[in-house]
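chain below, 131 aa
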Amino acid sequence: MKKPYLLPFVSCLIFMVFQCEEDSIPTMEYEQNTLIASKKIIEDLAASSFCNESTECKFIAFGSKPCGEPWSYLIYSTSIDTTELEGLVEVFNQNEDAFNKKWDVVSDCSAALPPTSVNCENNTCIPVYQN
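prediction:
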């Protein structure tokens, strides 16, 4: 089931969190919880996808480490609204990058390797990593 309201809802939610008013400044914990909630919505949308052929499977860089690399790669299929998912991921990545800069977040800076391919097994997209 496609949820066309998801992108505008999450975009507004994230915008409200990062929009600072003079009388109300969000705390780091509040902004972090908002990012966590957005991440769950995105992961749930990707998890709702299914595949019939390997050509339906895709992946996208997900998250923004303080060093600029993604935290991971999100696996999904074209059975869902991919434009919506990709838009949500783009907004999330930008907001996590802004959060990292605002709060001086640090990480190990290790690079998450993208899958070399993604196959469809039992109607689920599975990442393949080759050495």
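Residues 82-102 form the longest helix (21 residues). The chain is about 40% helix and 15% strand.
thats it, cya
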